[in-house]
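Sample pair:
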Amino acid sequence: MMEQQQVHVSQSNYGQIEAEPVVLTIQTRTDALVHASHCDKLNCRRPLCQMMINTFQHVSTCTLPIENKCYTCNLLFAVCCNHALQCKHTNCTILLCEFFKLNFRFLEQNNAKNHATHAGSFVAKKSPRHFLPEAAVTILKEFFASNQYPTKQERLALTKPTGLTELQIKNWCKNKRKTLKKVIQ
């Protein structure tokens, strides 16, 4: 999923003359990250460079705990991760690039080991959906019309005519109550 945000660059936000709105994707921000990391001009005229420098400053002063990072911190984290996925340089100087590359290699090695040891059972298979017999559903609908919350004894009594287990009857009633609630709302 590509995160997009409309940014209008104007004199008020970055000291630039009016420009067309720019759609900022993760890739656009990644390019800005690379430029800002190597830009040695304090007053670079590129608005995205200045935005990325402001982001660096924000991250270094953000007071939220690590597990509750703010939007800006999370966005920079995603941009750095995206750069690391594309980066072919060894000893890259971009923020967190080597950290992400190391983690990607670790995950790749673990996935390869898991896949080799489990030989096909690595991917969980979804069980097929089973439908209840129409006769059983008809009996359950008739009973449900008079009682939406059957007791355990009533559910056990319904097992013989329907051919279902007590748990199946319990779940059917629960699901039916949920669908009715959705319809009412």
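The domain at 134-179 is CATH 1.10.10.60 (Arc Repressor Mutant, subunit A).
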